Amino acid sequence: MLGTLNDIEIEEVLARNYLGRLGCTDGETVYVVPVNYIYMDGYFIAHSTEGKKIKFMRKRPGVCFEVDEMEDMMNWRSVIAWGNYEEITNELDKQKWLDLMVQKMMKLKVSETALPPHAMQNRPRPHQAGSISVVLWRIAVSKKTGRFEKN
Q1: 68 CB contacts (<8 Å, ≥6 apart)?
Q2: C-alpha 36: how far from its chain's center?
Q3: How far is CA 104 from CA 36, 85, 111, 147, in A?
Q4: In the chain, what are the domains?
Q5: Cβ distance 31 to 85 under 8 Å?
Q6: Would you say the pTM of this structure is higher than 0.85?
Q7: How would you write the pLDDT of the chain (151 residues) with one tens digit per residue?
Q8: What is the dihedral of CA 43, 81, 139, 133, to 10 degrees?
Q9: For residue 65, what are the β-bridge partners?
């Protein structure tokens, strides 16, 4: 049976998960990338080093975010949310959200690809000494929709 998730079910899917796909554009190229996140109070919160997605979102803050839960091909839930990118610059807010992210992510198995760039032995992107620029950001959700299939 195919169906539509209600608002409570949508919120549960978003809060229960930690990996989604961010869709953004610079006006010419569409970019979709997996992102680790926490979801709370109508916001996706994440962090990144300076790169393509940050550049795109700064240029065009309207984005899309998608989260799936899949038991098998006939039992799944999927949520799509739209909203606007915002950088978190207030130091107290940054610390609050980083603490929450650490609490949630520490429960997960950490792989080399999940480590922050400054903790990697072979960095994916070179940097100048002392110039690691981590951007803490959020998506203020303005619209959500969800679907499911249950066998």
Answers
A1: 76, 77, 78, 79
A2: 5
A3: 10, 22, 15, 25
A4: 2-117+129-149 (2.30.110.10)
A5: no
A6: no
A7: 999 999 999 999 999 999 999 999 999 999 999 999 999 999 999 999 999 999 999 999 999 999 999 999 999 999 999 999 999 999 998 888 888 888 887 776 555 555 555 455 555 555 445 556 789 999 999 999 999 999 9
A8: 120
A9: 22, 81
